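Hi W.,

Here's what went into the run:
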Amino acid sequence: MNGVKNSLLLYELMLVAFIAGCHRTDSDYATDSGLKVKDTVIRANVIILSRRFDSVIHVRQLKALDVLSKEDTTAASPFWPGVSVRLFYDNVRRNILFPDKINQGRSTNFCSYAAMTHLLIKYHPDLYIHYILSLYHNGEVSLKKKTLIPSLAVRQAAGILNNKGDLDVLHADQLWFLTLADQFKGYINILNLNYDPGDESTIWAGTNYAKFNRMLADFTDDELTSRGSDILKPFVSNLFDYISSELRKGVVVLYLNSKYLYPTKYSLVTLQAPTHFVVAYNMYKIGDMIEFQYWDYGLRTQQLITSKRLQQLIFGVTTITRITDEAN
Amino acid sequence: MKQTKKYGLIFFLPAFFVFCSDNRKSADYYFENKQTITEMRQLYEELYAHQPFSAGFSDKSFNYFVLEINTDTVRYIYNTENSWQQLYSAVVRFNYDTAKLKNLGEKMHAVKCLWLSKSYFYVDGERENVTFLSFRSVASNSKFVENKYFMLVFLPRPIATTFTIGRNRTGELVKIDSLVYFMIGSGFR
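Here's what came out:
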Protein backbone atom coordinates (compact mmCIF):
# COMPACT_ATOMS: atom_id res chain seq x y z
CA MET A 1 0.00 0.00 0.00
CA ASN A 2 2.83 2.34 0.94
CA GLY A 3 4.55 1.51 -2.34
CA VAL A 4 1.43 2.54 -4.29
CA LYS A 5 1.17 5.74 -2.26
CA ASN A 6 4.84 6.57 -2.89
CA SER A 7 4.46 5.92 -6.61
CA LEU A 8 1.41 8.19 -6.75
CA LEU A 9 3.24 10.88 -4.80
CA LEU A 10 6.27 10.66 -7.09
CA TYR A 11 4.00 10.81 -10.14
CA GLU A 12 2.24 13.88 -8.73
CA LEU A 13 5.56 15.56 -7.99
CA MET A 14 6.85 14.83 -11.48
CA LEU A 15 3.67 16.21 -13.00
CA VAL A 16 3.94 19.42 -10.99
CA ALA A 17 7.64 19.65 -11.82
CA PHE A 18 6.84 19.31 -15.52
CA ILE A 19 4.26 22.08 -15.32
CA ALA A 20 6.63 24.15 -13.19
CA GLY A 21 9.59 23.75 -15.53
CA CYS A 22 9.29 27.13 -17.19
CA HIS A 23 8.66 28.92 -13.88
CA ARG A 24 11.95 27.99 -12.26
CA THR A 25 13.45 31.44 -12.43
CA ASP A 26 14.72 31.70 -8.88
CA SER A 27 18.36 31.04 -9.59
CA ASP A 28 19.28 31.22 -5.89
CA TYR A 29 17.36 28.05 -5.23
CA ALA A 30 17.35 26.34 -8.59
CA THR A 31 21.10 26.28 -9.26
CA ASP A 32 22.12 24.80 -5.94
CA SER A 33 24.33 21.81 -6.67
CA GLY A 34 24.83 18.45 -5.01
CA LEU A 35 21.20 17.35 -5.28
CA LYS A 36 19.82 14.11 -6.66
CA VAL A 37 17.20 14.07 -9.41
CA LYS A 38 14.35 13.32 -7.01
CA ASP A 39 15.38 16.25 -4.78
CA THR A 40 15.28 18.56 -7.79
CA VAL A 41 11.77 17.37 -8.61
CA ILE A 42 10.60 18.12 -5.08
CA ARG A 43 12.32 21.50 -5.16
CA ALA A 44 10.51 22.45 -8.38
CA ASN A 45 7.26 21.53 -6.68
CA VAL A 46 7.80 23.86 -3.74
CA ILE A 47 8.99 26.71 -5.93
CA ILE A 48 5.79 26.75 -7.97
CA LEU A 49 3.75 26.55 -4.75
CA SER A 50 5.58 29.58 -3.31
CA ARG A 51 4.76 31.53 -6.48
CA ARG A 52 1.12 30.54 -6.80
CA PHE A 53 -0.24 33.91 -5.59
CA ASP A 54 2.09 36.11 -7.65
CA SER A 55 -0.44 37.47 -10.15
CA VAL A 56 -3.01 38.45 -7.49
CA ILE A 57 -0.33 40.00 -5.29
CA HIS A 58 1.05 42.03 -8.21
CA VAL A 59 -2.35 43.66 -8.78
CA ARG A 60 -2.62 44.53 -5.08
CA GLN A 61 0.92 45.90 -5.09
CA LEU A 62 0.14 48.22 -8.02
CA LYS A 63 -3.01 49.38 -6.21
CA ALA A 64 -0.96 50.20 -3.08
CA LEU A 65 1.67 52.09 -5.09
CA ASP A 66 -1.11 54.05 -6.80
CA VAL A 67 -2.49 55.13 -3.41
CA LEU A 68 1.01 56.11 -2.29
CA SER A 69 1.61 58.17 -5.44
CA LYS A 70 -1.38 60.39 -4.55
CA GLU A 71 0.02 61.26 -1.10
CA ASP A 72 1.52 64.64 -0.19
CA THR A 73 4.94 63.33 0.80
CA THR A 74 6.05 66.64 2.33
CA ALA A 75 3.33 67.01 4.97
CA ALA A 76 4.45 66.03 8.48
CA SER A 77 1.97 64.43 10.86
CA PRO A 78 1.21 66.22 14.17
CA PHE A 79 0.65 62.82 15.81
CA TRP A 80 4.23 61.62 15.27
CA PRO A 81 6.65 64.42 16.17
CA GLY A 82 9.82 62.28 15.90
CA VAL A 83 9.02 60.76 12.52
CA SER A 84 10.81 62.24 9.49
CA VAL A 85 8.40 62.67 6.56
CA ARG A 86 11.05 61.69 4.01
CA LEU A 87 12.14 58.57 5.92
CA PHE A 88 8.51 57.60 6.52
CA TYR A 89 7.48 57.61 2.87
CA ASP A 90 10.78 56.09 1.70
CA ASN A 91 10.19 53.26 4.16
CA VAL A 92 6.56 52.68 3.11
CA ARG A 93 7.52 52.56 -0.57
CA ARG A 94 10.40 50.15 0.14
CA ASN A 95 8.09 47.90 2.18
CA ILE A 96 5.57 47.61 -0.63
CA LEU A 97 8.22 46.94 -3.26
CA PHE A 98 10.36 44.60 -1.13
CA PRO A 99 8.27 42.96 1.63
CA ASP A 100 11.05 40.42 2.21
CA LYS A 101 13.25 43.22 3.53
CA ILE A 102 11.05 43.99 6.56
CA ASN A 103 13.46 43.89 9.48
CA GLN A 104 12.69 43.89 13.20
CA GLY A 105 15.93 45.77 13.87
CA ARG A 106 18.64 44.95 16.35
CA SER A 107 18.14 44.43 20.10
CA THR A 108 14.35 44.44 19.89
CA ASN A 109 11.58 41.96 20.65
CA PHE A 110 9.75 42.91 17.47
CA CYS A 111 10.12 39.55 15.67
CA SER A 112 6.42 38.66 15.85
CA TYR A 113 5.37 42.08 14.55
CA ALA A 114 7.97 41.88 11.76
CA ALA A 115 6.75 38.41 10.71
CA MET A 116 3.12 39.54 10.77
CA THR A 117 3.96 42.73 8.83
CA HIS A 118 6.02 40.81 6.28
CA LEU A 119 2.99 38.61 5.54
CA LEU A 120 0.54 41.51 5.57
CA ILE A 121 2.60 43.52 3.07
CA LYS A 122 3.47 40.54 0.93
CA TYR A 123 -0.09 39.27 0.51
CA HIS A 124 -2.20 42.35 1.28
CA PRO A 125 -0.15 45.46 0.32
CA ASP A 126 -3.40 47.30 -0.41
CA LEU A 127 -4.57 46.78 3.17
CA TYR A 128 -1.15 47.75 4.58
CA ILE A 129 -1.06 51.09 2.74
CA HIS A 130 -4.53 51.92 4.05
CA TYR A 131 -3.56 51.03 7.64
CA ILE A 132 -0.18 52.76 7.75
CA LEU A 133 -1.43 55.99 6.16
CA SER A 134 -4.43 56.10 8.45
CA LEU A 135 -2.17 55.63 11.46
CA TYR A 136 0.20 58.33 10.26
CA HIS A 137 -2.44 60.94 9.39
CA ASN A 138 -4.99 60.28 12.15
CA GLY A 139 -2.92 58.79 14.97
CA GLU A 140 -5.19 55.74 14.98
CA VAL A 141 -6.42 53.04 12.66
CA SER A 142 -9.48 50.78 12.48
CA LEU A 143 -8.72 47.21 11.52
CA LYS A 144 -11.24 44.59 10.49
CA LYS A 145 -11.94 43.68 14.12
CA LYS A 146 -10.14 46.23 16.31
CA THR A 147 -9.11 49.89 16.51
CA LEU A 148 -5.51 50.74 17.30
CA ILE A 149 -4.95 53.96 19.25
CA PRO A 150 -1.26 54.19 20.24
CA SER A 151 -0.39 55.86 23.54
CA LEU A 152 1.29 59.28 23.73
CA ALA A 153 4.54 57.68 24.95
CA VAL A 154 4.69 55.48 21.86
CA ARG A 155 3.84 58.34 19.49
CA GLN A 156 6.67 60.37 21.00
CA ALA A 157 9.16 57.49 20.78
CA ALA A 158 8.57 56.64 17.12
CA GLY A 159 11.30 58.01 14.89
CA ILE A 160 13.83 58.48 17.65
CA LEU A 161 14.81 54.85 18.33
CA ASN A 162 18.54 54.46 17.70
CA ASN A 163 21.21 51.78 17.81
CA LYS A 164 18.61 49.39 16.39
CA GLY A 165 20.38 48.62 13.12
CA ASP A 166 18.33 49.32 9.98
CA LEU A 167 15.35 50.28 12.13
CA ASP A 168 17.18 53.57 12.94
CA VAL A 169 16.31 54.89 9.48
CA LEU A 170 13.03 53.01 8.92
CA HIS A 171 10.62 55.44 10.53
CA ALA A 172 7.41 53.87 9.21
CA ASP A 173 8.48 50.54 10.74
CA GLN A 174 9.31 52.20 14.08
CA LEU A 175 5.85 53.78 14.18
CA TRP A 176 4.17 50.53 13.11
CA PHE A 177 6.01 48.08 15.41
CA LEU A 178 5.67 50.34 18.45
CA THR A 179 1.93 50.69 17.78
CA LEU A 180 1.46 46.94 17.46
CA ALA A 181 3.42 46.26 20.65
CA ASP A 182 1.45 48.95 22.47
CA GLN A 183 -1.99 47.80 21.30
CA PHE A 184 -1.79 44.01 21.29
CA LYS A 185 -1.31 42.47 24.72
CA GLY A 186 -0.99 38.93 25.98
CA TYR A 187 -0.30 37.38 29.36
CA ILE A 188 3.43 37.72 28.68
CA ASN A 189 3.12 41.54 28.85
CA ILE A 190 1.20 41.64 32.11
CA LEU A 191 4.18 42.85 34.18
CA ASN A 192 4.95 45.74 31.84
CA LEU A 193 1.91 47.11 30.05
CA ASN A 194 2.97 50.72 29.51
CA TYR A 195 5.80 51.86 27.28
CA ASP A 196 8.92 53.49 28.67
CA PRO A 197 12.01 54.31 26.56
CA GLY A 198 14.02 51.12 26.00
CA ASP A 199 11.01 48.83 26.36
CA GLU A 200 11.32 47.67 22.75
CA SER A 201 13.80 45.06 24.04
CA THR A 202 11.85 44.06 27.17
CA ILE A 203 8.76 41.94 27.81
CA TRP A 204 6.63 44.99 26.99
CA ALA A 205 7.29 44.06 23.34
CA GLY A 206 7.15 40.27 23.84
CA THR A 207 4.60 38.08 22.10
CA ASN A 208 3.13 34.76 23.18
CA TYR A 209 1.63 32.33 20.66
CA ALA A 210 -2.05 33.16 21.27
CA LYS A 211 -1.36 36.88 20.96
CA PHE A 212 0.42 36.33 17.65
CA ASN A 213 -2.48 34.33 16.21
CA ARG A 214 -4.96 36.91 17.46
CA MET A 215 -2.93 39.64 15.74
CA LEU A 216 -3.00 37.77 12.44
CA ALA A 217 -6.75 37.25 12.74
CA ASP A 218 -7.42 40.92 13.53
CA PHE A 219 -5.68 42.24 10.42
CA THR A 220 -7.33 40.19 7.68
CA ASP A 221 -10.11 37.70 6.99
CA ASP A 222 -7.58 34.99 6.18
CA GLU A 223 -8.32 31.60 7.68
CA LEU A 224 -5.94 30.38 10.36
CA THR A 225 -5.19 26.98 11.78
CA SER A 226 -2.66 26.63 14.56
CA ARG A 227 -1.01 23.82 16.45
CA GLY A 228 1.24 24.20 19.48
CA SER A 229 1.58 26.49 22.48
CA ASP A 230 4.08 28.45 24.58
CA ILE A 231 5.00 25.36 26.59
CA LEU A 232 3.81 22.20 24.87
CA LYS A 233 4.96 21.34 21.39
CA PRO A 234 2.45 20.45 18.63
CA PHE A 235 0.98 16.97 19.05
CA VAL A 236 1.90 15.59 15.63
CA SER A 237 3.69 12.33 14.99
CA ASN A 238 6.06 13.69 12.35
CA LEU A 239 6.72 17.43 12.28
CA PHE A 240 8.44 17.34 8.91
CA ASP A 241 5.45 15.64 7.26
CA TYR A 242 3.04 17.98 9.01
CA ILE A 243 4.84 21.21 8.06
CA SER A 244 5.40 20.00 4.49
CA SER A 245 1.69 19.29 4.09
CA GLU A 246 0.77 22.67 5.61
CA LEU A 247 3.13 24.42 3.16
CA ARG A 248 1.06 22.95 0.34
CA LYS A 249 -2.14 24.40 1.84
CA GLY A 250 -0.99 27.96 2.50
CA VAL A 251 1.49 30.25 4.20
CA VAL A 252 3.13 28.83 7.33
CA VAL A 253 4.51 30.71 10.33
CA LEU A 254 6.64 28.83 12.85
CA TYR A 255 7.01 29.66 16.53
CA LEU A 256 10.37 28.30 17.56
CA ASN A 257 13.43 28.37 19.76
CA SER A 258 16.03 30.32 17.80
CA LYS A 259 18.86 28.79 19.85
CA TYR A 260 18.30 25.63 17.81
CA LEU A 261 18.37 27.55 14.53
CA TYR A 262 21.94 28.69 15.15
CA PRO A 263 23.19 25.81 17.25
CA THR A 264 26.44 26.15 19.13
CA LYS A 265 27.94 23.88 21.69
CA TYR A 266 29.51 26.68 23.72
CA SER A 267 26.67 26.73 26.25
CA LEU A 268 26.00 23.92 28.70
CA VAL A 269 22.26 24.54 28.84
CA THR A 270 19.75 25.65 26.20
CA LEU A 271 16.42 26.87 27.56
CA GLN A 272 13.55 24.75 26.19
CA ALA A 273 11.22 27.60 25.31
CA PRO A 274 10.04 29.38 22.16
CA THR A 275 11.74 32.70 21.44
CA HIS A 276 11.18 33.65 17.82
CA PHE A 277 8.72 33.75 14.88
CA VAL A 278 9.78 32.92 11.32
CA VAL A 279 7.87 32.44 8.07
CA ALA A 280 8.56 29.01 6.60
CA TYR A 281 8.90 28.92 2.83
CA ASN A 282 10.17 25.48 1.90
CA MET A 283 11.11 22.29 3.66
CA TYR A 284 12.25 19.08 2.03
CA LYS A 285 14.46 16.09 2.69
CA ILE A 286 17.94 15.59 1.30
CA GLY A 287 19.01 12.13 2.41
CA ASP A 288 18.75 12.06 6.21
CA MET A 289 18.78 15.83 6.50
CA ILE A 290 16.06 18.45 6.11
CA GLU A 291 16.66 21.53 4.02
CA PHE A 292 14.75 24.38 5.58
CA GLN A 293 14.07 27.75 3.96
CA TYR A 294 12.57 30.48 6.09
CA TRP A 295 12.30 34.23 6.41
CA ASP A 296 13.42 36.41 9.33
CA TYR A 297 15.50 39.57 9.84
CA GLY A 298 14.75 40.84 6.32
CA LEU A 299 16.23 37.85 4.51
CA ARG A 300 15.43 34.36 3.41
CA THR A 301 17.71 31.76 4.96
CA GLN A 302 18.42 28.28 3.67
CA GLN A 303 20.05 25.70 5.92
CA LEU A 304 20.23 21.99 6.66
CA ILE A 305 18.93 20.66 9.96
CA THR A 306 18.41 17.19 11.37
CA SER A 307 14.96 15.73 12.16
CA LYS A 308 15.90 15.72 15.84
CA ARG A 309 16.73 19.42 15.71
CA LEU A 310 13.43 20.18 13.96
CA GLN A 311 11.66 18.40 16.78
CA GLN A 312 13.54 20.51 19.36
CA LEU A 313 13.02 23.70 17.39
CA ILE A 314 9.27 23.97 16.84
CA PHE A 315 6.66 25.04 19.41
CA GLY A 316 3.92 26.30 17.13
CA VAL A 317 2.79 25.97 13.51
CA THR A 318 0.26 28.49 12.16
CA THR A 319 -1.12 28.04 8.65
CA ILE A 320 -2.82 30.89 6.82
CA THR A 321 -5.18 29.99 3.99
CA ARG A 322 -7.61 31.83 1.70
CA ILE A 323 -5.17 34.71 1.46
CA THR A 324 -6.06 35.57 -2.13
CA ASP A 325 -9.85 35.63 -1.90
CA GLU A 326 -11.43 38.66 -3.54
CA ALA A 327 -13.34 39.31 -0.32
CA ASN A 328 -10.04 40.13 1.34
CA MET B 1 31.75 23.10 64.92
CA LYS B 2 33.26 20.50 62.59
CA GLN B 3 29.95 20.35 60.68
CA THR B 4 29.89 24.15 60.28
CA LYS B 5 33.41 24.12 58.84
CA LYS B 6 32.49 21.32 56.44
CA TYR B 7 29.38 23.12 55.11
CA GLY B 8 31.31 26.40 54.97
CA LEU B 9 33.90 24.73 52.76
CA ILE B 10 31.22 23.30 50.45
CA PHE B 11 29.70 26.75 50.10
CA PHE B 12 32.88 28.77 49.68
CA LEU B 13 34.90 26.43 47.47
CA PRO B 14 32.91 27.01 44.24
CA ALA B 15 32.85 30.76 44.95
CA PHE B 16 36.64 30.66 45.45
CA PHE B 17 37.09 29.01 42.05
CA VAL B 18 34.81 31.54 40.38
CA PHE B 19 36.76 34.50 41.74
CA CYS B 20 40.19 32.97 41.12
CA SER B 21 39.47 31.97 37.56
CA ASP B 22 37.75 35.18 36.47
CA ASN B 23 40.62 35.95 34.12
CA ARG B 24 39.08 37.38 30.97
CA LYS B 25 40.70 38.46 27.74
CA SER B 26 41.41 42.15 27.26
CA ALA B 27 43.33 44.50 24.95
CA ASP B 28 46.45 42.45 25.71
CA TYR B 29 44.97 39.51 23.83
CA TYR B 30 44.70 41.67 20.73
CA PHE B 31 48.32 42.83 20.97
CA GLU B 32 49.59 39.28 21.62
CA ASN B 33 47.84 37.95 18.48
CA LYS B 34 47.93 41.11 16.42
CA GLN B 35 49.83 39.64 13.46
CA THR B 36 47.53 36.61 13.02
CA ILE B 37 44.43 38.73 13.52
CA THR B 38 45.62 41.27 10.94
CA GLU B 39 46.31 38.49 8.42
CA MET B 40 42.88 36.98 9.10
CA ARG B 41 41.20 40.31 8.53
CA GLN B 42 43.09 40.84 5.30
CA LEU B 43 42.07 37.40 4.00
CA TYR B 44 38.51 37.99 5.10
CA GLU B 45 38.29 41.36 3.35
CA GLU B 46 39.56 39.83 0.09
CA LEU B 47 37.14 36.91 0.23
CA TYR B 48 34.27 39.13 1.42
CA ALA B 49 34.77 41.49 -1.54
CA HIS B 50 34.17 38.50 -3.82
CA GLN B 51 30.95 37.43 -2.02
CA PRO B 52 29.87 38.54 1.48
CA PHE B 53 29.96 35.84 4.15
CA SER B 54 30.49 35.09 7.84
CA ALA B 55 32.40 32.11 9.20
CA GLY B 56 33.13 30.33 12.44
CA PHE B 57 32.94 27.09 14.39
CA SER B 58 29.91 25.46 15.98
CA ASP B 59 31.58 23.42 18.70
CA LYS B 60 34.02 23.81 21.55
CA SER B 61 36.59 21.53 19.91
CA PHE B 62 36.67 23.64 16.74
CA ASN B 63 35.95 20.58 14.57
CA TYR B 64 32.90 21.83 12.67
CA PHE B 65 33.19 24.82 10.37
CA VAL B 66 30.20 27.06 9.64
CA LEU B 67 29.96 29.26 6.56
CA GLU B 68 27.10 31.75 6.07
CA ILE B 69 27.05 33.15 2.54
CA ASN B 70 24.91 36.24 1.95
CA THR B 71 23.40 37.29 -1.34
CA ASP B 72 21.17 40.37 -1.44
CA THR B 73 18.07 38.32 -0.64
CA VAL B 74 19.17 34.92 0.67
CA ARG B 75 21.51 33.72 3.39
CA TYR B 76 22.86 30.19 2.91
CA ILE B 77 24.10 28.46 6.07
CA TYR B 78 26.49 25.52 5.72
CA ASN B 79 27.79 23.50 8.65
CA THR B 80 30.31 20.69 8.14
CA GLU B 81 28.67 18.84 11.04
CA ASN B 82 25.68 18.33 8.72
CA SER B 83 27.31 18.07 5.31
CA TRP B 84 30.84 18.62 3.98
CA GLN B 85 29.47 18.06 0.48
CA GLN B 86 27.11 21.06 0.67
CA LEU B 87 29.82 23.37 1.96
CA TYR B 88 32.19 22.23 -0.78
CA SER B 89 29.49 22.69 -3.46
CA ALA B 90 28.79 26.21 -2.17
CA VAL B 91 32.47 27.20 -2.25
CA VAL B 92 32.67 26.00 -5.85
CA ARG B 93 29.34 27.56 -6.80
CA PHE B 94 30.28 30.99 -5.39
CA ASN B 95 33.76 30.63 -6.86
CA TYR B 96 35.70 31.50 -3.70
CA ASP B 97 39.49 31.30 -3.68
CA THR B 98 39.81 27.94 -1.92
CA ALA B 99 43.45 28.48 -0.88
CA LYS B 100 42.56 31.76 0.86
CA LEU B 101 39.48 30.26 2.47
CA LYS B 102 41.49 27.29 3.79
CA ASN B 103 44.17 29.65 5.07
CA LEU B 104 41.53 31.74 6.84
CA GLY B 105 39.97 28.63 8.43
CA GLU B 106 43.35 27.45 9.70
CA LYS B 107 44.18 30.82 11.22
CA MET B 108 40.78 31.00 12.90
CA HIS B 109 41.39 27.53 14.29
CA ALA B 110 44.86 28.52 15.50
CA VAL B 111 43.63 31.51 17.54
CA LYS B 112 40.35 29.76 18.46
CA CYS B 113 38.19 32.41 16.81
CA LEU B 114 34.53 31.44 17.19
CA TRP B 115 33.03 33.81 14.67
CA LEU B 116 34.17 36.31 12.03
CA SER B 117 31.65 38.63 10.45
CA LYS B 118 30.63 42.16 9.61
CA SER B 119 28.03 44.32 11.26
CA TYR B 120 26.91 47.92 10.88
CA PHE B 121 25.38 50.87 12.65
CA TYR B 122 24.13 54.30 11.66
CA VAL B 123 25.74 57.66 12.41
CA ASP B 124 23.61 60.66 11.35
CA GLY B 125 21.65 58.46 8.98
CA GLU B 126 24.80 57.12 7.29
CA ARG B 127 25.63 53.43 7.50
CA GLU B 128 29.05 52.43 8.90
CA ASN B 129 30.29 48.86 8.42
CA VAL B 130 32.57 47.17 10.94
CA THR B 131 34.35 43.81 11.05
CA PHE B 132 34.29 41.78 14.25
CA LEU B 133 35.92 38.63 15.59
CA SER B 134 34.55 36.68 18.56
CA PHE B 135 36.38 34.46 21.04
CA ARG B 136 35.52 32.85 24.35
CA SER B 137 36.23 35.51 26.94
CA VAL B 138 38.02 33.40 29.53
CA ALA B 139 41.78 33.35 29.17
CA SER B 140 41.97 29.96 30.92
CA ASN B 141 39.87 26.84 30.23
CA SER B 142 38.16 27.00 33.61
CA LYS B 143 34.61 25.65 33.73
CA PHE B 144 33.67 27.87 36.67
CA VAL B 145 33.57 31.13 34.75
CA GLU B 146 30.32 32.45 33.36
CA ASN B 147 29.98 31.81 29.63
CA LYS B 148 30.75 35.14 27.94
CA TYR B 149 32.45 36.20 24.74
CA PHE B 150 35.30 38.52 23.85
CA MET B 151 34.61 40.47 20.69
CA LEU B 152 37.17 42.53 18.76
CA VAL B 153 35.60 45.26 16.63
CA PHE B 154 37.43 46.99 13.75
CA LEU B 155 36.15 50.32 12.43
CA PRO B 156 36.87 51.62 8.92
CA ARG B 157 37.48 55.13 10.31
CA PRO B 158 37.42 56.80 13.74
CA ILE B 159 33.86 57.35 15.04
CA ALA B 160 33.10 60.02 17.63
CA THR B 161 29.68 58.75 18.78
CA THR B 162 28.74 55.65 20.78
CA PHE B 163 27.48 52.62 18.87
CA THR B 164 26.47 48.98 19.34
CA ILE B 165 26.96 45.98 17.10
CA GLY B 166 25.66 42.44 16.94
CA ARG B 167 22.11 41.13 16.76
CA ASN B 168 21.67 40.97 20.52
CA ARG B 169 22.38 43.53 23.15
CA THR B 170 25.83 42.91 24.55
CA GLY B 171 28.37 44.56 26.83
CA GLU B 172 30.12 47.93 26.78
CA LEU B 173 32.64 48.68 24.03
CA VAL B 174 36.16 49.47 25.29
CA LYS B 175 38.53 51.45 23.08
CA ILE B 176 41.90 49.87 22.26
CA ASP B 177 42.85 52.51 19.69
CA SER B 178 40.92 54.82 17.36
CA LEU B 179 39.99 51.94 15.03
CA VAL B 180 39.86 48.93 17.36
CA TYR B 181 37.47 48.22 20.25
CA PHE B 182 36.77 45.18 22.37
CA MET B 183 33.69 44.04 24.24
CA ILE B 184 32.86 41.31 26.75
CA GLY B 185 29.28 40.28 26.05
CA SER B 186 26.72 37.51 26.19
CA GLY B 187 26.47 37.01 22.42
CA PHE B 188 29.22 36.07 20.02
CA ARG B 189 27.49 37.02 16.73
